[in-house]
Amino acid sequence: MTNPPAAESPAPTLFTWEFATDPYPAYAWLREHAPVHRTKLPSGVEAWLVTRYVDARQALADQRLSKNPANHTGSAHAKGKTGIPGERSADLMTHLLNIDPPDHTRLRRLVSKAFTPRTVAEFAPRVQELTDRLIDAFEPNGSADLIHEFAFPLPIYAICDLLGVPREDQDDFRDWAGMMIRHGGGPRGGVARSVKKIRAYLVELIHRKREDLGDDLISNLIRASDHGEHLTENEAAAMAFIILFAGFETTINLIGNGTYALLRNPEQRERLQAALAEGDTGLLATGVEELLRYDGPVELATWRYATEDLSIGGEEISAGDPVLVVLAAADRDPERFQDPDTLDLSRRDNQHLGYGHGIHYCLGAPLARLEAQTALATLLTRLPDLQLAEDPADLRWRGGLIMRGLRTLPVEFGEPVRAPEADGASAM
């Protein structure tokens, strides 16, 4: 007598707090049963979710999927629910995440020089200085919230330096950015207010920079405009805004999620610490790529809109429909990655989609990698017995659609490891 077929598991409920804690089982179900899935988002907007790696990679490079919100055929109310909260009312829409070629090509070229490998390498000492300074501040306490005391301020100050925000103004930026993070999953009003403050400041800073150009990104945008590149003041403000917005939250989550994953996988963490102790940074480089794949900072790629009727994964997408590529699902696809739910810092075949694919591949990826490698290496070296100070079940993840990150990451540690003083140096 044959056994009856097993009952098919029910469709998961998406975008709840329980889902935010661990979305990967739900994404596994979608990959198997509904890889291109139309759903109603918490905002009320209906969109397609693309979850398999092969479909995701194709969609990210498909120029029929526009980044321009004008191609969304939904109601005016629905259009106001897409994109970054507050950017529309603050007149900050003309940035790289919202435009297509040829404008995208023109604006990306203007800022790409700030993120070349050479430029980023020159920035490495400043990132190390910031990292050490932040650890110095909480090290004597024996405990810390690694999100608010480390992963959050590090990229904020780094991006401010890159843009050319004066040191005396950077704490204001930290406050405004913090408001955007705290309200990411709640009322949009708080986010919109902080976005408007950032925009007003950037416009004022652009005017100041015109009188005193420096060696920073905003000054370079002004120079490009003055040399006939046709960069409007609004475009310059929008570009500075998106570099700030995209650059700080992704890196917060990369450092936070990455540290959390290492603490939950002690054998991998010990491998990395052993390699660092021997001066071997190879595992650090592949490890950061694996952390991007395993639990990356961007859960869903930013909004795209079909410019014509098209097919993805066998589903018919109508012109004007929003499409969201689920990077977190694609990067755990067993059809692409061996043992995808296992963290393996030495994984070599790792063409993850953590920073996207195609012409919208994350421009700031080299800087984010530098910050993550510096942060993780310094934490694990200076605080070798770092451990969670709270039950993982009690940790909370920020609710939101695009980003994935912890609200807090409480840790504790014993005596730090200090670098030996140079021969002949006297104690201060």
Structure, described:
It is a single chain. With 428 residues, the chain is of the alpha+beta class. The chain has a single domain, classed as Cytochrome p450 (Orthogonal Bundle). It is built from 16 helices and ten strands. It has helices at 17-21, 24-33, 53-61, 76-79, 103-112, 117-138, 146-151, 153-163, 170-182, 188-211, 217-229, 233-264, 266-277, 282-295, 327-330, 365-382, and strands spanning 36-40, 46-50, 65-66, 143-145, 304-306, 310-312, 315-317, 322-325, 387-388, 410-412. Strand 6 (310-312) and strand 7 (315-317) form a beta hairpin. Helix 10 crosses helix 12 (233-264) and helix 12 (233-264) runs parallel beside helix 16 (365-382).
List keywords for this structure.
428 residues; alpha+beta; Cytochrome p450; five-stranded mixed β-sheet; 16 helices; 48% helix; 8% strand
